[in-house]
Write a structure and sequence with these properties.
- By secondary structure, the protein is mostly helical.
- The chain has one domain.
- The chain has five helices and no strands.
- The radius of gyration is 20 Å and the shape is elongated.
Length: about 140
């Protein structure tokens, strides 16, 4: 009976607890990296445009003198992370219903990343916990 309890109850419970601790640890470790990326991208946008971070990122997105790669990876990604409702119409305007980004594969130097757009729109429209505290 002791062997049964050990093998079929305690070991699975212990493995479950360890697995969840590892997952939570990894999630906790990536948060500061994401937050520093958000801050860096807001600083890039604010260095070129006036206004708060959200407005500067929108202007960065709309300014076609910035490369499509920069617009995708600085503005679009960050607008999704901060859940910018103000940017949502612009993001939807650029989105071409390509969630996997097949139309922009190996073409990020000439077109906006459709996968980034899809992810940003999804993040803004969802109830996911993102980083709205940077949207000030």
């Amino acid at each position: 009976m002791k062997k049964f309890i050990l093998n079929y109850i305690l070991v699975p419970v212990l493995l479950f607890v360890i697995f969840n601790a590892i997952v939570l640890g990894l999630l906790y470790c990536t948060r500061p990296v994401i937050e520093s990326g958000i801050i860096k991208n807001i600083d890039i946008a604010k260095g070129k445009y006036d206004g708060n971070g959200e407005d500067a990122l929108i202007l960065f997105l709309l300014d076609e003198t910035n490369t499509p790669y920069q617009r995708s990876h600085v503005a679009i990604w960050t607008l999704g992370q901060i859940k910018s409702q103000k940017a949502l119409p612009y993001l939807k305007e650029f989105y071409r219903n390509d969630p996997r980004g097949y139309s922009c594969k190996n073409r990020h130097d000439s077109v906006l990343c459709q996968r980034c757009l899809f992810n940003a729109i999804s993040a803004i429209e969802s109830d996911w916990e993102m980083h709205p505290e940077f949207n000030k």
